[in-house]
Design a protein that fits this description.
The chain is mainly beta. It has 1 helix and 7 strands; from the N terminus they run E-E-E-E-H-E-E-E. Strand 3 and strand 4 form a beta hairpin. The protein starts with 11 loop residues before the first strand and ends in a 5-residue tail after the last strand. Its EC number is 2.10.1.1.
């Protein structure tokens, strides 16, 4: 961005607070909300329904949850990759 070469978004791992599903064979992104729990661990949950017309979920999100193509399900307590949204940190 702004002429920077090889820019990549910040990606960190968080603990899923709910089961997540994805279509295997493609990278899936869901809007999410991350926070630190009482043990200081980074956790994440979805904003609910992910439809393109659901503005509430877009305004609540402070990250994107990235599920890799090889994964079809993430269970509660498992690690998942998140991309914090700039300006929402």
């Amino acid at each position: 961005m702004q002429g920077e070469q090889g820019w990549q978004p910040l990606k960190v791992n968080a603990i899923a607070l709910e089961d997540l599903r994805s279509r295997q064979g493609r990278t899936e992104f869901s809007r999410g909300v991350y926070a630190f729990n009482t043990q200081g661990q980074l956790t994440v949950r979805t904003t609910g329904k992910q439809g393109s017309g659901i503005l509430r979920s877009m305004s609540e999100a402070n990250c994107l949850i990235e599920i890799a193509p090889a994964i079809d399900t993430v269970k509660v307590g498992e690690s998942v990759t998140i991309i914090p949204l700039q300006g929402r940190i």
